[in-house]
Amino acid sequence: MTEARSDNKLFALICLALALGTAALYWPITSHPFILFDDEEYVTVNKHVITGLSWDNFRWAFTNVEAANWHPLTWLSHQLDCALFGLNAGAHHFVNLLFHVVNTLLVFVFLRGTTGAVWRSALVAAFFAWHPLHVESVAWASERKDTLSTFFFLLTLIAYARYAQERSKAEGIGSQPGTSGGTTARYWFYGLALFLFGCGLMSKPMVVTLPFVLLLLDFWPLGRILDTEFRVRNLKLLLLEKIPFFALSISGSVVTYLVQIGGGAEWKTPLFDRLANAGVAYARYVAKTFWPTDLVILYPHPKHWPVVLSLGAAVVLVAWTILCIRNWRRQPYLAVGWFWFLGTLVPTIGIVQVGAQSMADRYSYIPSIGFFIALVWAAAELVRAKPERKNLFLILGGGALAGCLLVTTIQITYWRNSISLFLHAIEVTQNNYVAANCLGKAFEKAGDKTRALVLYRDVVRMEPRFSQGHFNYAIILLEFGDKTEALKHLQAAAALEPRNPDIQFDLGIFFSQHASWTNAATCFSNSIALRPGFPPAQHNYASALANLGQFSSAAVHFREALRLKPDFADAQIQLSHLLTDHPELK
Fold first, then answer.
1. Do 203 and 188 meet the contact criterion of CB atoms below 8 Å apart?
2. What is the pLDDT of residue 178?
3. Is there a contact between 321 and 342 (Cβ–Cβ < 8 Å)?
4. pLDDT computed for residue 371 by the predictor
5. What's 368-426 look like in SS3?
6. Taking a C-beta distance cutoff of 8 angstroms, is the pair 300, 431 a contact?
7. Which pLDDT value is given to residue 228?
């Protein structure tokens, strides 16, 4: 009884240290503003989010595919934040911090519960909590999907581990801690794991690889695949019980692929280039885990990696994988940790290229857990094999954690505003046109339009196929009075992204300002076709039609604008004038 009480006290103290240390480390983010990259789409200008929780917004969360993703629970989370805190950015970041603290504790609880190793589990949790690679997932409001999906991912692992432990005890196999609660309790945990996995998929589809992680856990530390003589047992049963998980995973993968294809998020790049980037990205994730320098919000895709670099990365990865497989009996944690890292990165490694990045710090949030497990358990086994080196390993481990705390503290400072964040990204990367575009927006919002103009010009030079760069450059050229050049870039943006209703609308505004009514009508019509419920597009389309003498059609669209927005004063005034001049339209 005394020993159990002592263990519980130690457990509570470790949890307290992890929670307070993580909260203190990340506390500065609670005073940070939203940034000008995704936060507008996810929160600040999204009417379905800023209006909080409602039945209409709830339905929208489950039926829309905005941001080229289907993650309704993430949308509901943002809606709840807005209902509670409005657009107080610090409060939104605080909720992200809370999730990160809870996830840290869940990592500790999960590993301690499945392995019984207290200090190793605590060290893995500490690396997870304080590593600089995870700053992006916590300090970025739009990455709520990362912290939220990981919350459900870890809860799923814990529920599954309880189910597996109960089943193993009932069948008289394994040696995992736990108390058998009978068949009912066993399948309650199984059903709970399945439900939590579904919640994870509805938060961020990256967790689709979870069924494979469950199979890794069956191998180690749950010990359900092999007996003490290393003979396979019950493999068919273990695969059968994963079928519902795989069914959810496949469904989530199909939905995500269709949504991203439909949203135009996929980049068409040759398969060889995608495979080369995947190998190099894996190597870079490993390198940045050991030496986390030059971390940025977006690493630009180089399009083509040098063949020597790609092959070198592939050789190193394959060699380490073979080493882990060869030592799976003596060091099962190496194989499990390494394949956890490799496997959970698959959805974001670039085989299907989505977005302009070659890799992203936020993608390491879940995979790094496996990597830390392999490192910590391997170090602990070395200490046990050579006790005389214990102090050396303690110094190295403590130094690594101290280094994480220092670099993470520095990394958090870059997130204090959009200018510092994207300026840092430009300083440590090359041809980062997305970061330059965001920095231009930040300077423009701050009133420094000259610097914004220079940056937008650089963006167009770096990547002529980037429609947003052309669009932003055109808008600021208009402010400087260069209408001819502005039109050229507006048309380039519209040609590159013909299914963007905002670009079509703004191009229509330009034509309207220059009385080019036929072109204006075409652009507004395109905008309406893409977004029918956009009152300004309906209103401006009606104005263009009226100027072209198509009064009957103009009246229809004025009325539609008023239906969508009953207090639309300009539409009401113009409709009244139209009906006065053409009473037959009443």
1. no
2. 43
3. yes
4. 97
5. HHHHHHHHHHHHHHHHHHCHHHHHHHHHHHHHHHHHHHHHHHHHHHHCCCHHHHHHHHH
6. yes
7. 66
Rounded to an integer, what distance in angstroms lies between the CA atom of residue 501 and that of residue 507? 10
Amino acid letter for position 580: T
Q: Evaluate the CA torsion angle 320, 326, 328, 331 in order and state its sign.
A: negative
pLDDT at 575: 84
Q: Report pLDDT for 305.
A: 85
CA–CA gap between residue 102 and residue 15 (Å, rounded): 10
Coil vs helix vs strand at 182? helix
Model-level pTM greater than 0.85? yes
- Specify the pLDDT at position 585: 74
Give, in order, the Cα–Cα distances in Å from 565 to each of 348, 524, 571: 40, 17, 9
Backbone angles phi, psi at 442, to 5 degrees: -65, -45
Query: Hey, what domains does the chain have and what are their CATH numbers?
Result: 2-414 (no CATH), 431-497 (1.25.40.10), 499-586 (1.25.40.10)
- pLDDT averaged per 10 residues in sequence order, the chain, 586 residues: 75 97 98 95 94 95 83 96 97 98 98 95 98 98 97 98 87 50 79 97 96 96 80 83 96 84 62 86 96 94 86 93 92 96 92 77 97 95 82 86 97 98 96 95 95 96 91 92 90 84 85 85 88 88 90 89 89 86 78
CA distances to 421, 438, 575 from 139, in Å: 11, 17, 48
**What is the reported pLDDT for 580?**
83
CB 141 within 8 Å of CB 36: no
Residue 33 in contact with residue 229, Cβ under 8 Å?
no
Residues 6+ apart with CB under 8 A from 86: 50
DSSP structure class, residue 357: E
Instruction: Put residue 242 in one of left, alpha, beta given phi > 0 → left and psi -120 to 50 → alpha.
Output: alpha
Q: How far apart are CA 462 and CA 240, in angstroms?
A: 51
Are the C-beta atoms of residues 142 and 49 closer than 8 Å to each other? no
Q: Which of 487, 560, 551, 553 is nearest to 519 (CA)?
A: 487
Q: Which residues contact 265 (CB under 8 A, 6 or more apart)?
A: 68, 354, 355
Using alpha carbons, list the distances in angstroms from residue 546 to 535, 536, 579. 17, 15, 11
449-462 vs 433-445: helix crossing angle, rounded to 10: 160
Q: What does the pLDDT read at residue 172?
A: 63
Q: Using the structure block, give the residue that is written with the tokens 């939590």.
A: 196
Burial tier of 385 (Cβ tally within 10 Å: 0-12, 13-18, 19+): exposed
Tally of helices (H runs) and strands (E runs) in the chain: 28, 2
pLDDT for 413 equals 98
> What is the phi/psi pair of residue 62, to 5°?
-90, -15
**Do 18 and 109 meet the contact criterion of CB atoms below 8 Å apart?**
no
Residue 304 neighbours by CB under 8 Å, 6+ apart: 273, 276
Structural element, H or E, at residue 130: helix 118-130
Place of tokens 């240290």: 17
């070659």: which residue's tokens? 358
